[in-house]
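Q: For a teaching session next week I want to show students how multiple molecules come together into a single three-dimensional assembly. I've collected the sequence lines for a complex. Could you give me the predicted structure tokens for the whole thing so I can convert them for display?
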Amino acid sequence: MKRSKKNSKSLEILNETQARQTKRQLSFVLKYGLKYIILIFFSTLTLVPIYWVVVTSLKTKSTILFWPPQWFPNPISLNSYEEVFKQLPIGRMALNSVIIALSMIVTNVVFCSLAGYTFARKHFPGRDILFALIISTMMIPMYVRLIPLYLLTIKLGMQNSYQGIILPSAILAFGIFLMRQYFSTLPLEVEDAARIDGCSEWGVLLRIVLPESKPAVTSLALFTLVWSMHDFLWPLIVISNTEMRPLPVGITLFVDLFVSEWGPVMAMTSILIVPIVIIYALLQSQFVRGLTEGAVKG
Amino acid sequence: MKRFFCLVLVCAVLIIFAIFTISTLADENANKTKVKIWVAGAQEGWLISSNLPAEFEAAYPQYSLEITQYPWNTLHDKLIAGFLGGDLPDVAAGADQWVAEFTAIDGLEPMEDFKKVNNYNDSDFVTNSWSHFITIDGTLHAVPMASAMRVLFYRTDLFEKAGISHPPTTLDELIEDGIKLTNGKDQFGLADQRDYLDFHFFSWILYAKGGNFYTPDRTKCTLTDPVAIEALEFYKSLYDKNIIPKDPAQQAETFQGFLQGYYSMAMSGFWWLGLLAAHPEIEGKWATAPLPADKTKITYGHPNGWIIPAKAKNKAGGEAWIQFFLKVKTQVDWYKGVGELPVLLAAYDDPVLKNNPHIPVFLESAKNGMDSLFNIPNGDPVSALVYAMLSNLKSNKVTPEAGAAAVCGKMNDMIKQ
Amino acid sequence: MSSKVLQIREAELLLVRWLRRNSFTIISLAPVIIFFSIYVYLPTLYSVYLSLFKTKLFTPVNFIGFQNYLNVLKDSSFWGALRNTFFFTAGSVIGSLVFGLVLALLLESKMPGKTFFSSIFFMPYIIPYTAFTLLWYWILDPVYGLINYLLSFIGIKAIPWFTSSDWVIPAFILMNIWKRMGFAMVLFLAGLNTIPKELYDAAIVDGANWWGKFRHITLPLLRPITLFVMVVSIIYNLQLFIEPFVITKGGPSNASTSIVFLLYKTAFNLYNIGQSSAIAVILFIIIALFTFLIMKRFKTENFYE
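A: Of course. Below is the structure for the complete assembly, covering every listed component.
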């Protein structure tokens, strides 16, 4: 009697664990399955306009305005891309963009990290007021400073030059804000320990804090890169020479007041998206590595 | 960490090197004087890759041309920045609404002497070409570039189907035909216009009814006059009768709508000639006609001109460019490349223009052009005021009388300055 | 040696010692302060100065004190622009924040395809503004636009996006969320990365479900980043300009006129720099007020201090 009871009890336990396992497996599949379904749904929504950009860039002039809209270009034509390459000095403009972007990224990463760290960790009188003053620079529309800034640039002899384009964006208040917020989330103990061990301020920053801040630094670099691509009005005003223009500004050649040339506009957009998405994807894999590093260090 | 820093250092060195070498590259044309031209819009950008610069430099070997293209809005701001001490071109494309406002801030070079010295006679040019740019104080600060009259585009296939034998010649016929051509669902008589094109559209109706925005001496707003109210009511009736879609959800974009046969008629300009030509599926199904008239045949045009900044470094070069531009061959090439219609009447004898069935319509319309409404410094804000009121009018937010009164109230303050 | 020389010597020593002790702070902040003074504060202060004058272009002519400000506040189009801008900002900020957070949460664990999906959501942010405005102008056409075409398949009637004064700001909000959710997502991803895994493990041991974990660990620890995204988005969106400028010219019926668009028109069309500077100052005060209120409400101290 007792043994059968024992047996039935262990059977019960076995059934229970099996049930729990299948329940766990099911919830796992449900959780991940649901995640993927939601992600695929949102991705599709997000991609519709972008798909339209790419597809339009591959259509002929007359098929672009077909109705109902043509989902797949027929015939596929590289005319728009030819137009773009024919009318713009793409190579030179791309070089300009690279120089401008790299410069902005370097200056922003260096100076914003420095300042952000100081605002996050150092206490000195007037710190908060100074920080507020810097944030407040984001609240002033560009148009207010446009003409005075342009005249200043001319006085410094920097019109039509790379420095002229880069300098107003060399340090973005937004970058200082970002780094400061991020640094303030890092645990203090590590830094304090390093200081006790005799590390200088610079050492703490360079050897301890920055390696921990890869996601923030890469975010900053990424956003600065995108900012350099978006900066449209300032390069147009400060440069009077087509050769010195960065690539995104080249799109103006195809944009008109009443009807624009859709094909080349979309072709240029496609050309601009590709390299940045690749850079983003590369940086994102940095993120993943950063995650695992953090977990291992514990 | 070390590797990262090395990378940063290398980048920095490369960048500094690039900055100093690339931006100071020597100019091969160092012994020639540069003539800087700024053009605007996608179409005019054609100039850069065309044969015209070479031809100009052949005709004027002491000059080398440097052309930069800007979007219209940015060109406006850039010129202002230039007047305040920044870079300036030697000659630039100028929208007609800019001429008076730039003149008021002493930005432009007067051009009467240029006209006299070069013996340009009004009779050699399309009607009103030169007088369009005369500001209210009687001075001339721009040179005509192109003729830009508005005409009526209409779908011949839709007209045939509705049994209408000829395009409307009066505003009443416009209403009649419009009603016949509208089914309220996927076909409408007349196209809706977006943004400032709506303002141009209304200008035609206002002028046709014998009205104007302000008195000839530009001291008083005349939108409250009976003829102007009549024009506003006519404009509104087009929407009320659904000739132009009343429902905003049915107000498609003008060109696309015309292309698809959604709009049977549309008021537009020369740039549609090129656009429509790129669509073989619509060939033979459309034609042009002068804008329907009413009490007057006065029609509307909105041309651009060439302007020379007062502080330009090489004004002689700028003038040389304009002289080169106002030659028949250049005018024809410009039409072929940009699509803008010539201002020199002799250019219309060229086969490419003569054999185009639509050109005579434009020429005919040009004979009845109206003086520019922008010949005062605040012409542009005035048009913005009217545009805002029109969109209130077409969505029934305001009555014609109230709308006109509101506009006149603000306008009279504006033009008093 | 006179006592005066001694005193100067002492002061020098103190100064040098102070400099040496604070060298890090000084070196890190000096470039920033110098840069902002030249490139931002100087031009801005000049504008503020001009706002107190009646101006002819950029030169002050008559001192009129706060008359420009009164003119702005008395202008009904200013209040309309304010209303439009607020409505737009509220919708955009909430939308892009929520979407960005949701996407970051979905993507945060080490799942395959994370880079792929996050690249897709980041793409709209990359598109330059000229192309962006043109694209949306086209696909939001009420009759021949892609969006209404797709909506018709799920039974939604054509929406008069840019042609109706009721829908024009919602259209801008839609465009803006699409464009900027990637920005929020990237930052939330970075923020989620800083939350130590042990906290979650501890919570699981304590029996917390996903909502509990979210509410008591994720959200609070994300505060600095959330604050950042919110503040930056608000500052940015209150300066709405490009969409009204390029697409609708402030219409229809001035429903899409934003404050900065009004500022631009006042400066570059009416050439009233004094008044446009007044608008800029008023806008600045509004933005600063919002920012101050929000930062006070969601005060972030250093959690570990």
